[in-house]
Every structure is written in structure tokens, then in C-alpha cells.
Amino acid sequence: GYPLYSHKVGTVLHTTYSYCEQEASIGKALWHQVTTAVILRQNMRQNKQSPDDAKLRKALENLQYKSCTESVTMCSATVPWGDEKPKLNQPRFRNIFVITAWNAYRDKINELGCARFARETGQQLVTFYSEDKSAAIVDPSRSPNIVEPELQQILWEFPHECTDNHPGKLTLCMGLPVMIKTNEATECCVTNGAEGIVAGWKVRPLPDNRVALDTLFIRLTSAPTSIQLEGLPENVIPISHQPLRILCKMLNDKTLTILCDQVAVIPNFAMTDFGSQGRTKPDNVVDLQNCKSHQSIYICLWKGSTYDGMIIVQGFDKQKMTGGISGSLRQ
To answer: pLDDT (tens digit, 0 to 9) for every residue of the chain, 331 residues total?
Structure first.
């Protein structure tokens, strides 16, 4: 839908409006209760003092208002075309996650990244499957709502975007970068979005010679403080499998609610612009081609702390960065 500040969102409720339109109107009425807004004028992530870094900070300030000039040229200069440009195969960028706008792109990059990582480290990928059940109300006098084998196979093959990021099938190996997708223990920095690498696992058997994860051990790589759990190395934490009620998007555009029993992690070779918010990295690899607006582009570029560590993997629409913001957003 449209953002709440858009003039296309009405302010008057009417019975002829759809459910979504009525929700948007109520949301706009609540949003209008905010009388004071602030905007960040100094970017605290880019703190180096090189001439290019100073230009990047100025470009990001202009990008907030969609009034870029020099930033278009600077961003074009970071596209890796030419012998002197940075390349993704350089060691510093080898396993850095790519920020992209679409979940489908994220899932495909993660799939290719897992295969490449296993090949380069000389390992075999191990596939761990979920145990799914129908989320309908279970009659205690009847057997559990087991998913039919044909449907179970379809659910396992779904990309993570279709299963609310609770994967039906996880393909992992030792040392593989992963991201935790649920708040397990906030006091131990095990939160949604925490990054780490696979340090080990315990499994339980499934039919047809398949295995499911019982516990996945992850070594946190970006925890603000060191964590020491009894019997485990420093910064290594266990993540247990758990059943989550998820809404699956089926191939016929219908939805199916299931209980998916799986460890809530996904590979971390790519993430969406939404998921990257709040992170700061010296090396920042982004794909701006499918960003919907200047706000999405700003989120992607804002995460990087240095100009030298920024790579834009392909071309992008420069018009999304120029021309000024809409009147409704300016208000």
C-alpha cells in the first residue's frame, strides 16, 4: 500500500472502503497525532576523513531529500566495472552479505553462497528438514494433523520468503555464515538479526534417511559483549528447534497455515534493505537496481562506514535519487 503521509491515503472512513483502505485511514489518523518530527543532519556511521568519505556523507544528506547531484556520480564510480574497481572476489568482500531489495534475490544469493562456501572450504553441504503439521485445531481423539507426503515435499522446496523466513529446508556446513531470525535470549545477545557462523549441530532422524536439527550451535560474530555459556566455547550459543505458526504462500496463490518445527536461522550471504537497518559495516555490498525509492537506496548506502568499502553490484535508476521529494513527504 501507500505510505501514511501520501495524499492517496484518505482521512475519512467510509463503509464503501475496503478493509485495507479503512486500516490505512485509521493509521493516518493516528500518525497525525505526532506533532514534532526530527531528521538526522549528521551521519555518525561515516566517520573517516578522506575526501571521498566527506563527499559520501554529503551525498547521503542530500539523498534524504532526494536531491542528489554528486552522489549519482560517486555511486556510479563504485560499480565494479574496470580493472581498478573493487571486486567481489577480493578477500575482504568474499563472504560479505549483499543488501538487496527483493526477498527472491536474497534467497537465490544465499543458495549460491552456500554452494560456493562449501566448495571453497572443501566441505559437503548437509540438508536439514523441518517437521510440519497442519495448524488446524487438533481433535484429541484423533491422530495429529500430519501433513501429507506430497504436500510436505512442496513445503520443503519453498524459498524462505514464502515461509515467513522459517525455512523448511536448511543447507549448512561448518563455518557457514548464518543469521538468527527470532529473539531467543536477549540477555545473551541472541536476538532477531544476530549474525554468526555454524559451529556444530545435533540432529534427530526423520523417515526416508532424512535428518532434522535438534540443536544448532552458532558462534556469534557481532555480539556487543562476550558470552560464555557453561560447557561451550566463548561466544558459542545453542539454538533449539521450535514449532512456529507460519502462513505459507502456495503456488496457486492460496495460503496455508502450518506449524513448522525448525531452527529459526537462515544463511547470511544476503539480506533485504529492511533487514539491514541498524547495522554498520566497513565493507558494504549493495544491489540498488530494484530499490523502490530514495528511502530504500538511503538505507542500503547508509550502512557502510567507508567509501572504499562500498560496492554496488550492478547499475541502478539514477532518477530515484534526484528530482526532490513529494509534497506530502515534505509536509
So the answer is: 677 777 777 777 666 778 888 888 888 888 778 777 777 666 666 666 778 888 888 888 888 888 887 656 666 656 655 566 777 888 888 888 999 999 889 999 999 999 999 999 999 999 999 998 887 655 555 556 778 888 889 889 888 878 887 888 999 999 999 999 888 887 777 888 889 999 999 999 998 899 999 999 999 998 888 889 999 999 999 999 988 888 888 878 888 888 889 999 999 999 988 888 777 788 889 998 899 888 888 888 887 778 888 888 888 888 888 888 777 676 6
CA triple 86-91-92, angle to 5 deg: 70
Which residues on adjacent β-strands are paired with residue 237?
A: 218
Cα distances from 101 to residues 10, 27, 274, 298, in angstroms, run: 28, 25, 8, 12
For residues 89 and 209, membership in a common domain is answered with: no
User: Helix crossing, 294-302 with 51-63: angle to 10°?
Assistant: 150
Task: Give the Cβ contact number of residue 164 at 10 Å.
Answer: 15
* Residue 21 belongs to domain spanning: 1-37
Residues whose CB is less than 8 angstroms from the CB of residue 82 and which lie 6 or more positions away in sequence, other chains included:
none
27/31 Cα distance (integer angstroms): 6
Residues 243 and 77 sit within 8 Å (Cβ to Cβ): no
Rounded to whole angstroms, what are the CA distances from 34 to 6, 31, 39?
15, 6, 14
- Same domain? For 156 and 246 the reply is yes
Pairing type for strands 236-240 and 98-100 reads: unpaired
Q: Are 98 and 285 in contact (CB under 8 A)?
A: yes
Task: State how many domains the chain has.
Answer: 3
d(CA 25, CA 122): 56
Judged on CB neighbours under 10 Å (0-12, 13-18, 19+), 182 is middle
Based on the fold, state whether residues 75 and 153 are members of the same structural domain.
Answer: no
Distant-in-sequence, close-in-space partners of 152: CB < 8 Å, separation ≥ 6: 132
Q: How many Å apart are CA 14 and CA 8, to the nearest integer?
A: 15
